[in-house]
């Protein structure tokens, strides 16, 4: 990924979040850290390994994980360890992703919320980060179509679970399925963002999913 810092992209991202850049290319990642600190006014950190990131935190966190020169199977193992202790207010995305990368589905199932490819422009990178921080996902149509097709083929109806959801939970799950963010749900239902988060936590637990894309697919099949 080539960094070309320009005042053209001086738009602010969401504030109040720590940004952690993970990877072995220290020079690239320090440049990226400096750029994001300048652009967002947030605290930015560089780590060689995702499991070097402190686990105890109260501030929401964005983790940008560099795939370049990484073994994908090792990354899956590290991500599994990290997920055991991470809190809900984490956003994890991969960058420098190869266009022929395998394990797309496995990373999505582990809660990765976006992929940025080696050929992506800085403008696209910043736009994607904004999307992820707003509570949505950043995947190519090809990846999403393949993932949805495979999950639809393999998923079994769960009407018994659907009947255990409250009317409010069904309402929120339906809104997640059409791509509404937490903030949008909050405004439409006249409830606080924190209440939305609590509902999502309980919904995910009931339907046995760990992220929004899984919840969306579950809703499409079972509601």
Describe the protein's architecture and organization:
There is one protein chain. The chain contains 10 helices and 5 strands, in the order βαββαβαβααααααα. The protein has 223 residues and is an alpha/beta fold. It has 2 domains: 12-146, Response regulator (Rossmann fold), CATH 3.40.50.2300; 155-222, Winged helix-like DNA-binding domain superfamily/Winged helix DNA-binding domain (Arc Repressor Mutant, subunit A, Orthogonal Bundle). Strands 2-1-3-4-5 form a 5-stranded parallel sheet, with helices on one face. Helix 7 packs across helix 9 and helix 7 crosses helix 10. The longest helix is centred in the first third of the chain and has 15 residues, at 26-40.
CATH superfamily of the largest domain: Response regulator
Residue runs with pLDDT of under 50 for 5 or more positions: 1-12
Count of discrete domains: 2
State mean pLDDT (0 to 100 scale). 80
Write down how many β-strands occur, each being a DSSP E stretch of 2 or more residues: 5
Global structural class: alpha/beta
H and E order: EHEEHEHEHHHHHHH
The CATH topology annotation of the largest domain reads as Rossmann fold
Q: What's the N-to-C terminus distance?
A: 41 Å
């Amino acid at each position: 990924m080539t960094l070309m810092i320009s005042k053209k992209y001086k738009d602010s991202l969401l504030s109040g979040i720590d940004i952690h850049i993970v990877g072995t290319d220290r020079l690239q990642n320090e440049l990226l850290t400096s750029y994001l600190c300048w652009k967002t006014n947030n605290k930015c950190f560089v780590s060689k390994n995702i499991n070097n990131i402190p686990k105890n935190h109260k501030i929401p966190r964005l983790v940008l994980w560099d795939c370049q020169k990484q073994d994908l199977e090792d990354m899956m193992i590290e991500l599994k360890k990290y997920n055991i202790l991470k809190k809900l207010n984490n956003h994890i995305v991969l960058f420098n992703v190869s266009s022929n990368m395998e394990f797309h589905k496995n990373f999505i199932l582990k809660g990765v919320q976006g992929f940025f490819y080696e050929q992506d422009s800085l403008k696209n990178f910043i736009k994607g980060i904004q999307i992820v921080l707003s509570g949505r996902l950043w995947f190519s149509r090809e990846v999403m179509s393949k993932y949805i097709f495979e999950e639809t083929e393999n998923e079994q109806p769960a009407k018994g679970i659907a009947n255990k959801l409250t009317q409010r939970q069904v309402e929120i799950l339906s809104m997640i399925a059409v791509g509404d963010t937490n903030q949008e749900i909050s405004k439409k239902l006249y409830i606080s963002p924190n209440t939305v988060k609590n509902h999502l936590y309980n919904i995910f637990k009931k339907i046995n999913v760990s992220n929004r894309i899984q919840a969306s697919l579950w809703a499409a099949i079972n509601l």
